[in-house]
Amino acid sequence: MPDDFERMWADLAPVGRSSASGGYFRQPFLSAEVELRAWFAEQAAARDLTLTTDPVGNMAAWWRPAGVSGPGVLTGSHLDSVLDGGAYDGPLGVVSALAAVDVLRARGFVPSRPLGVSVFVEEEGSRFGLACLGSRLASGALAWSDALALADRDGVSLESALDRSGLGGPSYEPWDLASTISCFVELHVEQGRDLVDRGAAVGVGSGIWPHGRYRFDFTGVADHAGTTRMEDRADPMLTYAMTALAANKQARLGGGRATFGRIDVAPNGTNAIPSRVSAWLDARCDSEAALSSLVEEVTRMATERAGRDGTALAVTAESVSPAVGFDPALAAALAADHEEGDWPVIPTAAGHDAGILSVAGVPTAMLFVRNPTGVSHSPDEHASTPDCLVGVSALADVLERLAR
Ligand code: GLV
Ligand code: MN
Ligand code: MN
Ligand code: MN
Q: Which amino acids are annotated as binding site, given as ranges?
């Protein structure tokens, strides 16, 4: 089995990798991600799994022995990446799931309920802006018409991207979760240093912090960078800059996280005061009340600053994900009784398709594999092969228990 994992991992290593940074560019429906999804279909076929692909490109490959039916145990993750992302965020869960199927077969195990490996589309929202797009559609949390209208930075709508990929269609039927999925387990690289600090190769997720994405549109007056007196300006870049400082301060004070990782400037010229700055705030806190108050406070400070700068501000909540608590009984069972003792049960401030399915009522668990760098959403993300193999056997064990 280690061979299977390492062979698959080697298959994926070059796909979408930037030779300049070593990071990955695997945006949905662009060449690298299309190649990865074709690879997944081949892996499913090689294992005789029955593949279903829905109109947005979500895939599930089912191991359904003769006479076995009813809701199944689903495991998997995603194959898309953030811009210049790491190798592990997403693909580790998919490759580990396929490797776990191989482990179970090598053990002679035959599931008595269906066992599926899933790939949800656009988990990162790096192309169309909305994280967990595929699982939101599958769970019925997002309407098809709203999804189709999303557009990427070049103005290409999801509808036309799907059309060009041979996907899409006039309607989308959310998955019938109750009759198809009895529980969902997502294995994922850890995106922080908790497991390193605790000396554990694997941890179990307790839940996900509530988080959201908010677009701040600052509008001012374009003018000449040389001839406009400093006191005569209405510069939205200045309001944005002060807002970024305020967000950082506010998050530190409240123990939350606030990041402006993306801005769009018009007209984006060195020698012109901008007419508009759009900036996306990613905010996360350990409670919904703390998240609301962080975002309210940043908005209040930005509005106050805009008043002083003579600029205008509009804030749009593009997506807000509630607090998620994974199935506590499942988490406790996963964590208990290992050779190394109990595994740590830890929360995460990263979003996952597992969170979307959990909110939709599916009993859900997550396994995290130690990341020695603690870095994620960056080329420096890492997990050692021995730790990945511990993750695969942990996943195989839980699947065996759940599908027995
Ligand atoms: C997705 O990985 C997120 O948490 O941003
Ligand atoms: Mn991610
Ligand atoms: Mn991920
Ligand atoms: Mn994620």
A: 78, 89, 124, 188, 213, 271, 284, 377
Q: Are strands 211-219 and 276-284 parallel, antiparallel or unpaired?
A: antiparallel
Pick from 321, 350, 382: which residue ends a domain?
A: 321
Q: What is the CATH number of the domain that holds 17?
A: 3.40.630.10
Query: What does the pLDDT read at residue 214?
Result: 98
Query: CA 62, CA 97: separation in Å to the nearest integer?
Result: 12
Q: Domain range spanning residue 239? A: 211-321
How large is the ipTM? 0.93
Query: Residues forming the annotated binding site for Zn(2+)?
Result: 78, 89, 124, 188, 377
What CATH number is given to the structural domain containing 254? 3.30.70.360
User: What is the per-residue pLDDT for 342?
Assistant: 87
Q: Is the pTM of this model over 0.80?
A: yes
> Which numbered atom of ligand 1 lies nearest the CA of 350?
4
Distance from residue 376's CA to the centre of ligand 1 (Å) = 9
Positions of the chain with pLDDT under 50? none
Q: Note the pLDDT of residue 1.
A: 55
The pLDDT of residue 2: 55
Cα 373 to chain centroid distance, Å, stands at 19
Q: Is the CB of 350 inside a 6 Å radius of any atom of ligand 1? A: yes
